[in-house]
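Readers of this paper often ask what the protein records in our data store actually look like. Below, we set out a record of this kind in full and without editing:
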Amino acid sequence: MRADWPDGENSLTTLRADGGMANSDWTMQRLADLTRCLVDRPHVRETTSLGAAYLAGLHSGFFPEPDRFSAQWQLERRFTPQMDAGMRTGKLAGWASAVAKVLS
């Protein structure tokens, strides 16, 4: 995933999380730690549903243009990476091992 980011492997990128799992501080912190990214959680957690409603409203002429609509997004909390590199490497190796066992 990092290889696809504009600044490559070493960039610090911000991920915006939504949905039910975004309610979990632990999950959001773990995501930040394992990806080495900032993780932003919005005030409105169901932004996927909101986006679908917005597209329907845009098509019908009820909602404003995308630039005005996206300005409504508000940060509720930002999670910053805190896990040290050694622990992160160990956690990711354990995950890779578990996936390999499931696939074999």
User: Anything to note?
Assistant: The chain has a mean pLDDT of 87.
